[in-house]
Amino acid sequence: MPDAGYRKGFTLIELILAMATSALVVGILSVCFAFTLRVWRSTQNQKPDQTFQLADLLNRQLAECDPTPIKFTGGVRPLFAGQENSIVFVTAHSVKAISQGVPVVARYAYDPNSRVLYYSELLLDPYHPDSIERFLAGGSSSKKDTEVRSYGVDFPEFALAYAGRESTRFSQSWQNVNELPVEVLVRWRANDSVVHARVCMLNAPFPIEVSNVAAPGAGAGGFNTGLNQ
User: Fold this and answer.
1) Cβ distance 180 to 88 under 8 Å?
2) 82 shares its domain with 186
3) Same domain? 71 vs 35
4) Is the pTM higher than 0.90?
5) Is the pLDDT at 226 greater than 80, yes or no?
6) Which of 122, 209, 211, 224 has the most CB atoms at less than 10 Å from its CB?
7) Residue-number span of the structural domain to which 144 is assigned
8) What Cα–Cα distance (Å) separates residue 81 from each residue in 37, 146, 174, 217?
């Protein structure tokens, strides 16, 4: 004989609790999905900060800097010229060369008025130094009809400094034509409005991320290249 206390199905209260629990779970899942979708859309709409990409390129090229002397009109010397807003050197890391390891002359030139950092490179031909001299004397242009085209990236601020083997602090320019610096300090303000700095070692693959370093116009541990903190 069936037990008199045995119940078939759910009571009304149990059914309401089950429906409420299901609705709560569905609501939580919907909120999580909507939040994930918003995050995904925001990341898809964000453009990568090209200031970091160009800073990484400069570091890789300095890590493969070629100190081989080149015969110019004024004599034989390594090709390296460094100013606060520009740098030119020979590197085995090319952006445009089909074969890796082909030496090129790389040039970075920052225009503080337009706040654009221009990059250009020339295939190194040591037997025709006149083409190198024309490249060094030429300006930066993004026009396709120019002899050497430059590629510009917006940089809110950009500055360089240099240090040799015996240097105790960084200088805003490199004047020694017969010797290359050991370190190049790259300091820039990115699109996030934060000032970033790194010390690139010539012929060394890993840069040093820094916050405060000795530089022209600053005391020990300070830095001043025109970038406002």
Assistant:
1) no
2) yes
3) no
4) no
5) no
6) 122
7) 50-210
8) 49, 22, 7, 21
